[in-house]
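Hey all, sorry for the wall of text incoming. These are the two entities for the joint prediction.
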Amino acid sequence: MNLEQKPFFLWRHLNKLRWLVLSLVFMMLVALPFVHVYQTYVASFSYDLLDSDEKELFDIMESLTSPFTDNPADELDAIKGNTWSGNFFGYQISDPLAVVGQTAASLSVYWPFALTALLPVIFTLLFGRFYCGWICPATFLYELNTIAALTLQRFGVRVGHRHFDRRLKYLVLALGLLLSAFSGSVLVSVIYPPAIIGRELYFGIALGGVGAGLVFFVLTLLFDLLVSRRGFCRYLCPGGALYSLLGRFRLFRIRRIVENCNDCAKCNAICEFGLDPLRDDFGQECNNCTACIAVCPTDALTFVSRLRDDENQGPGHLGKKYKHLQQGVE
Amino acid sequence: MKRRLFLKELIAGAVASSALTSSLAEAAFSAQTSQRYLRPPGALAEAEFESRCIRCGQCGEVCPNRCIEYFDFENGVDSLNTPYIVPRTKACILCMKCGQACPTGALQPLERTAEDILAHVKMGRARVEKSLCLSYQGKTCGVCYRACPLQDVGIRVGMLEQPHVLDGCVGCGLCERSCIQLPQAIKIIPQHMLKSSASS
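and here's what came out:
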């Protein structure tokens, strides 16, 4: 066994960083509507007209923001929007699915908007479906949902572990775009969980009422819980389908070091997307979430930069199966 | 004979069901333009607006007046999650921030100048209901005129402060919001309803 092939030690801590990013993005989506409500209070000079709850919000927001700005009505606009399309310190960034959906609905490309998806597309070409693992606000809730499901399972509740065809989501993407083109209205945004989360959080906090999107999202949560673990992302998400297609030949991918592997299959058990790291089958679905790297007891998974996965490298060299094979040869 | 009858019934059933589903689809997908709502300022024409708007909600999130609300199913599936304004609840103050925030061009980016607003903002047009208006009943009021951001361009007042809507009206709805009559004596007729009445 050659020990030079140890993965870079930081890779196994990326999963913690990922949870930090996910929760920061989600907290940002919760905070932005509050910021907006506060801005409207300031803009209307209406402190004396607010009721006690609203005054409380005003006071809290004022104490949080007063060190940074004297003019919150205009100057707190640095971050606006959500992960579907948002303004980040002057840079407009949009989901590629929004651009594809708008193009389908209006049957023409509107370049000023299409270019706002350039940065996400470049990152997806490099890192694959990273958005699904690292940024998507729905992923944050879906992964908590998975943890809840596994906890329930420990107490003897039956949760869903059914498998479907992964290619189903490409059909959903095609149908969503066809529906958008047919209706002349960007309807893919209505079945895309991260867009729904961004909107419904704003509706719920700033406008005082949630819409039908939340019902849809709760249904997907129940689907994940009762039918198939992380089923919506794996089999149905139209955005996931688009990211998978874009990230098929991603430059940075996870690879199994067969010399270090002992066939324990913990990677397969932890994988949210139901992939098969143990047999080198990551494919275009892998979202580089690095949960498998973090869980691997023998440092057998690492990041590499190459355009394709390995073919199945066979049983891990530390496992029993490999030893039997070796003895058989001798 | 029997088989032919069965085939006939089958075909008739198929035709009927396809007609039913297409009419259902039409009911669900075509916007009910009879509803009186305004799109935010600088919006494209209704059909084009729906094909451009990606429902990101940024127009509402920059509105300092929080007058932009979002459709659920009230206006058909096509309008799901698109922004609208009900002027009597809260009217637009023509700050033009929403158009500058809109990434898709569904709301055109406009400057807050009289030229830009008069040239490109077409939310609707105000209409006075004389039988409800106080000024037309001899009780001098003039609140709508004073609320108007485009005085003497969008609206002027005559004798007893009786309002007359002019061609410069962009339909922001501040007059309707401020009308002290109940029900309001001045209403914005949205652009999509103006067009349909003009064409028919």
